[in-house]
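ok, trying the design again with the full structure, not the truncated one.
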């Protein structure tokens, strides 16, 4: 059974940084599937945050995080990371990573809480 696990969440002050990591039960999953990061804030629908292709050659972001967040692959650690800088209170949410197969994000992690507050 495929499992994705997110880590790195926590409480940070506005303007601070966090680095989220996504690992998988199988190295194959992160090596061969495109990976996306999503988030869901209280009372809101889940929204797309960032995407990285299986090779790492293509990335894209939702407009609200461009210039602040960076998605990357760490092949040595077998993770897909989301570096989040200049965090704002509106970035507060549960963050999820997901593996994309074809046109569908099929496998999801359980999420990690990110809270931006002073």
């Amino acid at each position: 059974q495929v499992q994705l696990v997110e880590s790195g969440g926590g409480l940070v002050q506005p303007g601070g940084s966090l680095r989220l990591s996504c690992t998988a039960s199988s190295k194959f999953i992160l090596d061969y599937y495109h990976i996306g990061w999503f988030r869901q804030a209280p009372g809101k629908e889940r929204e797309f945050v960032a995407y990285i292709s299986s090779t790492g050659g293509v990335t894209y972001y939702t407009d609200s995080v461009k210039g602040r967040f960076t998605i990357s692959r760490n092949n040595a650690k077998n993770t897909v990371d989301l570096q989040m800088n200049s965090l704002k209170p509106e970035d507060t949410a549960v963050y999820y990573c997901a593996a994309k197969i074809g046109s569908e994000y099929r496998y999801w992690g359980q999420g990690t809480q990110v809270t931006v507050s002073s």
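Keeping the full-length input from now on. The first helix runs from residue 27 to 32.
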